[in-house]
Design a protein that fits this description.
Number of strands: 0
Helix content: 55-70%
CATH topology: Helicase, Ruva Protein, domain 3
CATH class: Mainly Alpha
Largest sheet: none
Number of domains: 1
Order of helices and strands: HHHH
Number of helices: 4
CATH architecture: Orthogonal Bundle
Structural class: mainly alpha
Length: 86
């Protein structure tokens, strides 16, 4: 296929992630909306796709779906909140 060798989603270049994690129509709409409302950088966009692809892999799914992207975005939203005092 001419793709660079990668053994994990973490080591895949962004271009490979974009093609491997091509979401379904509902997922594509969600990630576009999130990119605008959450002001995702290109790096943030690709990291979200990477996590969603991993979640789809864990579910045994061949395609990234809205569910996977929503879960990936939920982890991102948690990471942006300041740490609560113990």
């Amino acid at each position: 296929l001419g793709l660079p060798a990668a053994t994990t989603n973490a080591t895949c270049p962004a271009t490979v992630i974009e093609s491997a994690a091509a979401p379904d129509a509902e997922g594509a709409a969600l990630i576009r909306h999130a990119a605008e409302t959450m002001r995702l950088s290109a790096r943030g966009f690709h990291r979200t796709l990477r996590v969603a692809l991993t979640l789809a892999d864990l579910d045994g799914e061949a395609q990234v779906r809205r569910l996977h992207l929503a879960e990936a975005l939920s982890y991102r939203a948690r990471g942006e909140q300041p740490a609560a005092a113990a």
